[in-house]
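Dissemination and training. As part of the outreach component of the grant, students in the summer workshop were shown how a complex can be specified as a set of sequence lines and then modelled as a single object. The example used during the hands-on session is reproduced here so that future cohorts can follow it. Participants entered these lines:
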Amino acid sequence: MKIAFCCMNTDPRPWLQSLRAALPEAEVVEWSPGSMQDGVRPDYAMVWGPPQQLIDEQPQMKALFNIGAGVDALMKLSLPPHMQVVRLNDAGMSVQMAEFVAHAVIRHYRELDAYERDVAAGEWRFRKPLLRTDFPIGVMGLGVLGERVAKTLAMFDFPVLGWSRSPRQVDGVHCFSGEATFDEFLSATRILVCLLPLTPETRGIMNRDTLSLLKPGGYVINVARGAHLVEDDLLALIDSGHLAGAALDVFQTEPLPAGHAFWKHPKIAVTPHTSARTLREDTVLQIAQKIRAMARGEPVAGVVDRERGY
Ligand code: NAP
Ligand code: GLV
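and obtained this result:
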């Protein structure tokens, strides 16, 4: 069995070492444009943001194993129908996402940003406690990450709502599904968390119309993809006072360009796409197990439905 490794912006050396240790029976080769020796025909590839050239050069590959959860970059490629795309299922991401979103929610709800400003100004000042019942949280996307996030927030006794494409049941979470329930879900939400995959249906889903439906004082936490949010619409709704602010981990353009309005906005917290990181050892272990299963002809979890786009 031959496996190509092609992960952009990633130092390949520790990955190649881990992958060779996890799959000693396989020949693991690094792929970069023009690097593959003639006659080397990989069966599988481990990828992150690969160029179309990899696919065009190696169309016989049976599957691409993504080292992240989101496959939007792969869905832009032209792939032969037989080539499967397999997303990462958790591999240590859901706990990171749960802690990151819980932190963003609690920082906002407990006004920790305001306390930090007071302390920086040398002021010992109490604020009136707020009621968590006034901060219903709506989680868009109840998949591997969204479900864990929603359950975690419910443990802090916040009212939690969830929205997905197909009906879901999550303990402690009021679940909505489908487009027909979207407005009802938004209108009942004050803190909106985006954990949707980026697909043609979800691109720009957070815009002036939808964000206007949030309860007054709404707050947006985007930890999915920058293209889910119409950035100017968010700024306009914060400026108008309808939204209280946002915590953004992902952006239309990454890295966030110098001079972008988000960098210094007093009501927007920015992080550099770091809410749930790929953990190398967990990821290699999961992908190695999936490759072995696929080679034996067994089903594997996380095969992407190319029609749906996730
Ligand atoms: P997932 O398991 O595929 O879950 C996706 C969820 O979104 C599912 O509940 C799905 O509904 C729902 N959904 C999809 N399209 C929808 C639509 N049109 N309307 C309503 N609901 C829809 O994905 P995941 O593993 O939780 O990851 C979610 C996303 O997080 C990834 O795609 C990636 O973009 C992002 N992410 C970001 C970071 C970061 O560091 N910022 C890290 C990892 C992942 P069904 O349940 O009905 O299928
Ligand atoms: C990161 O953004 C991922 O999709 O895993």
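The two ends are 27 Å apart (CA to CA). Students were then asked to discuss how this feature might be tested experimentally.
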